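W.,

You were right to be curious about this one. When I first looked at the sequence I had no strong expectations either way, so I just let the prediction run and decided to look at it fresh. Below is the sequence, 190 residues in total, followed by the output.
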Amino acid sequence: MAAEAITILLALKRHGRMGRYSLSSITGISEGVVRRVLNELREQGAIRVMKGGAELTSKGEEILSAMLSNAGIVIINEDEELAKVFNCGCKRCYALVTRRSFDESDVVRLRDIAIKNGADAVLFLRYDCSQNKFLILRLGTYFEDMYKDLGERLRGLVMNIKCDDSVMIVCGSTNYQLIKSIMGVLGNVL
């Protein structure tokens, strides 16, 4: 349930109160699964269900924070503009910071895991404090040098980043596929 729950909790955090039809549409999770996950989240006190849909509770914020932390995610933000990096026509993109380190020699394997789990495109970066830039792994060039307008946008999405933190940009069709891809990658970081 972790990927489904994280996807639904992130959607509620970003969009506010929503019904299961809207959640299904936004997340890409079937309505039946949304209903099951909402019931489980309600039983945990993570959401409150009322007229107009479900909304995140303060306990839900704590649960989401703990789930992200357990997955190794320090910061995660959705931003469709990042799709310009890939020219993929992707509808959704996430930028995330993790303290887990992506090894350059492992980037191709991790990319394959992301794609297998439903992502259309993925990019792995490491924050280089000495240059105050994001190094694109395997390319040996800086993100800001290739995508000047998106460099500041990325910096805004991953504020409070620390030296040598790893960054992942992942884009695709549905939020659920992207969260599954992220969880698959982070679960396989050596």
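Here's what jumped out at me. DSSP finds eight helices and eight strands in the chain. And, maybe more interesting for your project: The first helix runs from residue 2 to 15.

Coffee later to discuss?

I.
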